[in-house]
Amino acid sequence: MMNKIKFLFETKMYLISILPYVFTFRPYDGSETYGINKTVGWAFDITGISFYILYFLLTFFLGFSLLAIIKTKTNFILSILFFLGISYCCLFQNSYKNIDLIDNLLLISTFLYILIFINSIYLKFKSPK
User: Fold this and answer.
1) Per-residue pLDDT of the chain (129 residues; tens, 9 = 90+)
2) How many CB atoms lie within 10 A of CB 28?
3) Contact at 8 Å (CB) between 52 and 2?
4) What is the residue range of 70's domain?
5) pTM of the predicted protein model
6) Residue 88 lies in a domain
7) Quick check: is 34 in a domain?
C-alpha cells in the first residue's frame, strides 16, 4: 500500500493535483449570506473567498503534467506537504475568519511547488559524473 502511495506522489502528481478541485466545488450552504432581504437585493460577503486559488490549481496541474510528460520523479515528502497545504486552502477558502492563514498557506504551497519543479528538472537533466 505504501509503495502505491509513494508511486502516486512521485510519478502521478498531476492526478493528485486535481483532487483539491473536488474540495473547491462543494455545495453552497448559505452560511455566507447576511443582510436584509428586501426588494433592493441580497448582500453576499465575498471578502473571504480567494478567487485566484483556481488559477493556482490550474497552474499546478499544468506544471505537474509537464513533469509527467518528461518522465521526472518528484520528491515524496515535498509532494505530500504540497498536497496537504493546497487541500487545506481549498477546504476552508470560504471562511472569512482565516483568510490570512489560507493566503499564507497558498504562498507556502506555491514555494513548495517551485521547489518540487526545479528539483525534478535538475535531477532529470543533471550530467552523470
Assistant:
1) 888 888 888 888 888 888 887 776 655 555 555 555 555 555 555 555 566 777 888 888 899 899 889 989 898 999 999 988 888 887 777 666 677 788 888 889 899 999 999 999 998 888 676
2) 9
3) no
4) 2-18+50-125
5) 0.73
6) yes
7) no
